[in-house]
Design brief:
The complex is a heterodimer of chains A (349) and B (313). Chain A has 13 helices and two strands; from the N terminus they run βαααααααααααααβ. Chain A has 349 residues and is an all-alpha fold. The longest helix of chain A has 30 residues. Chain B is mainly α and 313 residues long. Chain B has one domain: ABC transporter involved in vitamin B12 uptake, BtuC (Orthogonal Bundle). Chain B is 70% helix and 0% strand. Chain B has 13 helices and no strands. Classes of the chains: A mainly alpha (349), B mainly alpha (313). Chains A and B meet through helix 6, helix 11 and helix 13 of A and helix 4, helix 5, helix 11 and helix 13 of B.
Chain lengths: 349, 313
């Protein structure tokens, strides 16, 4: 078997990439559903109904899209510079921690000042959490994949300590959670009787800004150049290390914003289930979007659909909701293969 | 308690060797993959798959060694998937590995729920009993530490020396190492880079899964979701720490396990003073510190992360 580059990659082939990945996820899940003695057709309809079929379902999916846009953008910009940030989960919790610290009565500000403050401090903490591993990478050549991954465990244990210890809300009936954020720090809901909140505008604005940044600014161009060919970038006078560090601050910052938005928009208080792995799903979101900031919005919606829809479907059919994670993982692997097939032909010999 | 005295206690070292076992399997598995030039970030998920499949095999009536073998096969299957993607198709080893971890963890959780739909407390199996070897077990200090353990522990220790010998002194092992350093040279010798890398990743992943199965079939008697808890990532750090050498991997793993066992003992003594979460952080902090210390000296395989395409330079 060998791979041959295609002479020209047609638009049709490129359009097939997301479709092929979704089809692969559907196929694998159908097998699991049949194994669980349920009908895949019925499951598919329940999945659509549970993700976008009703006003409430759609609002839940959109609410789930918000953190995924942030973590997806975080992964997209980092991966663009070949900085393997797998620590978005920890950076998310870092952002949520600082927002809890500042937002639960520590400072008193009107809402129009409070939220920008929380988002910027959250982004700062997220960025600093990635700065450490990045400096280790640029100075000492320590592999950032492992350090960012291990940092996730450390930060989550820290949050564990905080919500069981000093930050534990005495009014929470013994539940391990911190006090709720003050009213000024709440991102209001935008649709009555749903959980869809203003965070969606923050997320969409971030995606748009990041796209413009990558497309039209020198810094954005440098990030793409460094990711594409670090050696050539050095020859044209780009300081590769400072570009990577800059990228790290932006990437970690975006992941920190995910934590602030979940805290202030959805949960209202810090708990250990603030994120069911948004940091890791962000990697899937970014890859499905081929690392394009605007594509991230679409793929975040798709991954949100997978988890919300599969959750509701699995409850109706009494199947384990881990099927959503299986679907997410399969679509990640499938998109890698189909992107390759859009560029290369496989020749069997 | 006097710390010095603790180091002289056989019981302490027994715990160290026991805790080192899953890490030894995982680290050796990852080491084999990386020496052939393939980073396998699927390790965390493959260990979870080994955990679940080994346990399920025994729970459904199979015997313990059958469970180990089954876990190894499941791990090898995920390894094959990783090899097809990264070796044959040349896809990003980072992203594919993370994808394999996600897929293997999600599938193990799903299958576990299929096998046991409505149980809150997971049922137990009868795990491996410590061996009772007549003469070797009676050696004063070494006897209980090495020979009075689960047979898997002994297997892991033998494997360290076997892998070390294999990589250094057999033609196949040398070819494997050369594949990680200079694949073109391998190809010019008439050997297939694809075949060597595929074998290395499949065997390495099988070992990782056995490490996972040790957790459910020997260290503990039940499976729960999230059981691997970062051990796979720690193994990746340990491979760097060991400079990709099996003998140093043994040293690294034992050192790591000794720190881990020590923090557990200390935790029991002064649990009032420092919250337990900080002790639980220690293994991860150790790993990061170990990476920082060793990163400068480590001579990583030259072709690690570089996909090989025939006829391309």
């Amino acid at each position: 078997m060998r791979l041959e580059p295609r002479e020209q990659s047609s638009m049709v082939l490129k359009a097939m990439v997301p479709l092929g990945s979704a089809a692969a996820a559907l196929l694998v899940c159908s097998v699991l559903i049949v194994w669980a003695d349920a009908s895949p057709v019925e499951a598919f309809f329940l999945f659509i109904k549970g993700s976008v079929g009703t006003r409430f379902a759609l609002s839940e999916t959109l609410a789930r899209t918000i953190p995924l846009i942030f973590t997806g953008l975080a992964a997209a910009i980092a991966f663009k510079a070949k900085l393997w940030n797998i620590g978005a989960e920890g950076q998310l919790y870092g952002g949520a921690c600082i927002a809890t610290w500042l937002g639960t009565g520590m400072i008193d500000l009107p809402g129009w000042l409070m939220l920008p403050l929380l988002f910027s401090t959250g982004a700062l903490v997220g960025g600093l959490l990635l700065l450490g591993p990045t400096l280790l990478k640029t100075w000492l050549k320590v592999d950032e994949v492992v350090t960012t991954l291990l940092l996730n465990f450390i930060i989550i244990l820290l949050v564990n300590y905080l919500v069981f210890g000093p930050w534990k809300d005495p009014m929470a009936m013994g539940w391990p959670q911190a006090k709720g954020v003050v009213d000024a720090a709440v991102l209001p809901t935008i649709l009555a009787k749903t959980r869809l909140h203003m965070g969606i505008f923050w997320a969409l604005a971030s995606a748009l800004l990041l796209w413009a940044f990558m497309r039209f600014t020198t810094w954005g161009y440098q990030i793409r150049a460094v990711g594409f060919n670090p050696v050539a970038s050095r020859f044209v006078g780009i300081s590769v290390n400072s570009v990577v560090i800059r990228t790290a601050l932006i990437s970690g910052g975006l992941a920190g914003c995910a934590g602030v938005s979940e805290l202030c928009g959805l949960k209202g208080y810090l708990t250990l289930d603030l994120s069911p792995g948004f940091g890791y799903s962000g990697i899937v979101v970014a890859m499905l979007a081929a690392l394009h900031p605007l594509g991230v919005v679409v793929s975040a919606f798709f991954v949100a659909m997978l988890s919300i829809g599969a959750d509701s479907m699995s409850r109706s059919l009494n199947i384990s909701n881990f099927i959503a994670d299986v679907a997410t993982a399969v679509s990640l692997l499938a998109v890698l293969v189909s992107m390759l097939l859009a560029r290369y032909k496989i020749r069997w010999r | 308690m006097d710390t010095l005295q603790l180091f002289l206690e056989a019981g302490f070292w027994m715990a160290v060797v026991r805790m080192a076992t899953p890490l030894l399997f995982g680290t050796l598995g990852e080491l084999i993959c990386e020496r052939a030039g393939v980073l396998n970030l699927g390790i965390e998920g493959i260990m979870a798959a080994g955990c679940m499949s080994g346990w399920t095999w025994v729970y459904l009536g199979g015997d313990l060694w059958g469970g180990i073998l089954f876990a190894a096969c499941v791990g090898g299957a995920f390894g094959l998937l990783h090899a097809i993607f990264t070796v044959h198709l040349g896809l990003s080893q980072h992203v594919t590995g993370l994808g394999i971890t996600m897929l293997a963890s999600a599938l193990s959780s799903f299958v576990f729920r299929m096998v046991l739909p409505d149980v809150t407390t997971p049922p137990k199996i009868v795990p491996f009993a410590p061996m009772d070897i007549p003469i070797l077990g009676d050696i004063p200090v070494l006897g209980p530490i090495i020979f009075n353990q689960s047979p898997l522990t002994l297997l892991a220790l033998i494997l360290v020396f076997f892998v070390g010998w294999f990589l250094k002194h057999t033609p196949a092992g040398l070819a494997l190492c050369m594949t990680g350093e200079n694949p073109m040279a391998v190809e010019s010798q008439g050997l297939s880079v694809f075949a060597i890398r595929t074998c290395a990743v499949v065997v390495g992943s099988g070992l990782m899964a056995v490490g996972g199965a040790f957790l459910t079939l020997s260290a503990f008697d039940a499976f729960y979701i999230g059981m691997v808890n970062g051990r796979g990532w720690i193994c990746i750090a340990l491979v760097v720490f060991s400079s990709w050498k099996p003998s140093k991997a043994l040293l690294g793993v034992v050192l790591f396990a000794a720190f881990d066992a020590l923090q557990m003992r200390v935790q029991q003594d002064v649990s009032m003073v420092i919250p337990y979460q900080f002790y639980l952080m220690m293994p991860y902090v150790f790993s990061i510190v170990a990476l920082i210390i060793m990163s400068r000296r480590s001579a990583y395989p030259k072709a690690l992360l570089v996909p090989f395409r025939k006829g391309e330079r």
